Predict the structure.
Amino acid sequence: MFSGIVSAIGTIQHILTHLDSIDFIICVPGTFTDLTIGESIAVNGVCLTVTHFSSNCIHVTAVPETLRLTNLGGLKENSIVNLERSITLNTRLGGHYVQGHVDAVGEILAIETEGEAALLVKISLPETLAKYVVRKGFITLDGMSITVIDVTPNYFTVTFVPHTQQVTIVKQYHIGQPINLEVDIVSKYLEKLMANSISTIKN
């Protein structure tokens, strides 16, 4: 479980492609000194397992399902990625509950400067996810917990403040870039509960 508050930016040092999966070796900051094998870490919002680590690198593997649903397959050596370690019981929850289970990939449609330094970004929204995205609700973008500004059946907009631009991969965003999307899990649970309740009443 994560909070959508990016811990640091990592750099892809090496990529090893197998028949159906990809191993990534990612350079991480010196603050990641107490990692353990088997620990979960979010890479661009994707929950992956640390299989090996050294003083400045971690090794993770993306399996076929992950590669189908995320933008990880498009990463190259020297690409930068958002990183977040899993939350602990004494962690301040500054964002929202994030599973690291990406639902789909959206695409940046437009980027505009808003005010002096903020960025207003328009992102495509897959039809299957539109019902879960609400104005002023949460959505996770490449592992970042962000508030939705406006939403339509086909796209939504968000604002990236200067701090987010400085400490995440937002600094490299451009029109046409694919972005990992994870909708708020609460909406999915409510949908399932309501469906079950309606079914029970009918029966």
User: Anything to note?
Assistant: The chain has a mean pLDDT of 91. The chain has two domains: 8-85, 104-187. The longest strand covers residues 104-114.
